[in-house]
Amino acid sequence: MQEEQGHTYARRARRASMNILRQLYVVFGVGAVLATLFTAWTPLGLIPSGLAQQFTDLLGSSSSNNSAFPTATARPRPRIGIVAGHWGNDSGAVCNDTGLTEVELNLDVATRVKEKLTAEGFDVDLLQEFDDQLEGYQALALVSIHADTCQFIDNNATGFKLAAALASARPERANRLLACVRSRYEATTGLRDHSGSATAHMSSYHAFNEVHTDTTAVIIEAGFMNLDRQILTQQPDLIAEGIAQGVLCYIYNEDASPVEAE
């Protein structure tokens, strides 16, 4: 009798263990599905920086470790376009005293902006001035990077300029991107907005009429190559950081109010 009771207890223990394992598989499976749905359906502006990518990486790792779990569907990475002004076309402005060209400054800064935004989990295209990809280009945002003249105008010729399309299909988006870049760039670099000096040429920039109407685009003159030459040439990473932070401010729907310089 004792031996029979012992077998009965053993069978019950095995059944209890199997039930616990089944429940654990169900819990982990449901968790994986919910996380997949979260990354697929949550609007980008509501996700903290980098969180979507972390979910995707985590789910990919889980599914590879246990084939019984649902396979995570990777969320398409949002796209951003960065134009290096004059690249592939001409030199842009030139400093006669040193031979410094605008295009080399633009390309250096644009490359750094791409690296920073790529590190944040975005697909970033580095585009030439008249890149074939610009026709119908679709992205969350596009920024064309330039520098202002190397000629000495007066002591007030310092700072940056910003412009969006004169007749944007979505002016509220264009104004928001403009405000974000202005706020973050000014705070990061310490350069001031050369208010009111943006030219009609900037507002009618050719790329504004080439990209898809859903692509919000702005152009920035990052500084004057005369009075702002030191920061443009010696601190290009700071210039790039200001632009990158402006783009992130727009994408993540952050407060675009002016902030104090760091």
Walk me through the structure.
- 45% of the residues lie in helices and 12% in strands.
- The chain is an alpha/beta fold and 262 residues long.
- The chain folds into two domains: 64 residues; 173 residues, Aminopeptidase.
- A five-stranded mixed beta sheet has the order 2-1-3-5-4, covered by helices on one side.
Q: Nutshell version of this structure?
A:
The chain is an alpha/beta fold and 262 residues long.
Count of strand segments: 5
- The succession of helices and strands, N to C, reads HHEHEEEHHEHH
Quick one: CATH class of the largest domain? Alpha Beta
- Name the overall outline: globular
- Termini separation comes to 82 Å
Global structural class? alpha/beta
Q: Please report the number of helical segments.
A: 7
CATH fold-level label of the largest domain: Aminopeptidase
Largest sheet report:
5 strands, mixed
User: Into which percent range does the helicity of residues fall?
Assistant: 40-55%
The overall pLDDT average reads 81
CATH architecture of the largest domain: 3-Layer(aba) Sandwich
What fraction of the residues are assigned to beta strands by DSSP? Answer: 5-15%
Radius of gyration, taken over Cα atoms and rounded to an integer in Å:
26 Å
Low-confidence stretches: 1-10, 32-43, 58-67
Q: Please, what is the CATH homologous superfamily of the largest domain?
A: Zn-dependent exopeptidases
Main-sheet strand order equals 2-1-3-5-4
Whole-number total of structural domains: 2
